Glutathione S-transferase (Pseudomonas taiwanensis), 207 residues
Amino acid sequence: MSTMTLFHGPLSPFVRKVMVVLHETAQLDRVALQPVNISPVSGDEQLNQGNPIGKIPALRLEDGTVLHDSRVICEYLDCQHVGTPLIPREGSARWRRMTLASQADAIMDAAVSTRYETFLRPQDKRWDGWVAAQSEKIRRSLANLEREHLAELASGFDIAAIGVACALGYLDLRQPEFGWRAQQPGLAAWYAEVIKRPSMVATAPAA
């Protein structure tokens, strides 16, 4: 029985991250999905209740409390199941994995910002320098993942690996020309395996 409501946009990589966590922790049946269609200039009145910034994902709990920001929601959900935690509960491992998850979020942020700039902003007002800067952030982050974090990502499908997988999926969806696989073959090989997971298959966005 659903006891929570997730305000949901299926193309958002941050929403997808929450959905993957729900699948991986076997909590999907606890959550009703509430679709919303928002943009930086268009909100949703119901979403704004208890969530004044109007961002997705947002999770309304049974008592009416609303959690927003995917990091907050994922950590909450990770405390609600009895399986292996997706986020280490303590020690240096916790901070390493949360920092790597934050890096994945930063890739998503840069990719979403690029999408807004190149798709929503009128063409005569687009800022090419902004787009180039976001692309450089993404390229630096992917190079770092390839160079320093492949073994960590391969060690288990935890919150960091989920975030990176969702970030790469969003790049493929919105910037298929980005060509990251040629520069990060190790990351590409890792991703080719994790996208076969049932949670990734079930949450794959359709353009």
Q: What stands out?
A: The CA atoms of residues 13 and 170 lie 6 Å apart.
